[in-house]
Design a protein that fits this description.
mainly alpha; globular
Length: about 80
């Protein structure tokens, strides 16, 4: 799982201004999940890019993302 560790370290450098992520990537998931700006970005920026009739809600998408992220972070 060296690739996962490398990705997290890259993101820590890339997103250094997000101190919650740099200090504790797992805890920052909880912040992103409840932060209104994250949901707004999903609704206004990402969702319009989805083609097709199926449009998943932020809650549905984040649940899958969080599950996978926690599994990957557990390998560090």
């Amino acid at each position: 799982m060296i690739l996962i560790k490398d990705c997290v370290e890259f993101d820590r450098g890339e997103f250094h201004h997000h101190t919650a992520f740099v200090g504790n990537p797992k805890q920052s998931l909880a912040t992103a999940e409840t932060e209104e700006q994250t949901k707004r970005d999903y609704d206004q920026v990402l969702l319009p890019l989805v083609y097709g009739a199926t449009r998943l809600t932020f809650r549905e998408v984040f649940a899958v993302f969080k599950s996978m992220a926690l599994k990957l972070l557990a390998t560090l």
